[in-house]
Amino acid sequence: MEEHATIFHFLYELGILPKWLPEVIPISWIVIIILGVAAYFSTRKLERLPGSMQMFGEWVVETFEKFAAGIIGPHGKKFAPFIGSLFLFILGQNLMIQIPGFNAPTANANTTIALAVITFFVVQFSGLSANGISGYFLHLAGSPKDAVGWALFPLMFVLEVIGELAKPLSLSMRLFGNIYGEDAVILILMGIAAHTLYFIPVHLPMALFAIFGGTVQALVFAMLTCIYLSIMTSHGDEHH
């Protein structure tokens, strides 16, 4: 999919970055660096009486722990680091379109597919860890408990496998479609303003809406991940 040029375009022209590397990758690196620096400064000097950065970091951690536990269950706290990282990373990428000369990496399907595939494997691995191999496959067969359930075992297994494989597709396409649509509208409005409206910033209302939309889409991705983890790991609690 064709993207508009970013401020990194000259690095490709100079041969510093390889032509095959999408321009959204350096932008993703910037998001990673920003999050890494924020995490470093909020945890580098932990004290009994926390400063403002430490208090903010603790509030963020507690918020994600409550968020994960509220959807997944008491054992959901262990998934908080993954859920929190996923939300913050996606949110940071969604908002990069607000900076002139940048793209939102999540407006590129390659980015959203990669995030969805990572989430898929985390969910499946968590299901295996929580239920064991036999419990995992029983879950995929609809957890049969009677003769009718066992008779439908082959059909339910196929349907559940298809459903699991469809989850990363729906996750990636939902995020990509929404962010790409918002970014496309902003760029179109900016182009109209530059050519016919003497640079009047008519795109600003849409840009503000994109901040709201980008936050919602990051939250939806994190929430659906929690729901998938809850469905896949809840049987482990029943077994215990």
Task: Please provide the ordered H/E string of secondary-structure elements.
Answer: HHHHHHHH
Quaternary assembly: single chain
Number of helices: 8
Mean pLDDT across the residues is 84
> How many structural domains are formed by the residues?
1
| Backbone shape | globular
Note the beta-strand portion: under 5%
Largest sheet features: none
Overall strand count: 0
Look at the helices and sheets and give the structural class: mainly alpha
How far the N terminus sits from the C terminus, by CA atoms, comes to 48 Å
Structural write-up:
By secondary structure, the chain is mostly helical. The protein has one domain. Helix content is 75%, strand content 0%. It contains eight helices and no strands. It has helices at residues 9-13, 24-43, 52-72, 80-95, 109-140, 147-151, 153-196, 204-239. The longest helix has 44 residues, at 153-196. The termini are far apart. Mean pLDDT is 84; it is low at 236-240.
Task: Provide keyphrases for this structure.
240 residues; mainly alpha; 8 helices
Q: How would the blueprint of this fold be written?
A:
Blueprint: H1 9-13, H2 24-43, H3 52-72, H4 80-95, H5 109-140, H6 147-151, H7 153-196, H8 204-239
Structure at a glance:
By secondary structure, the chain is an all-alpha fold. Helices cover 75% and strands 0% of the residues.
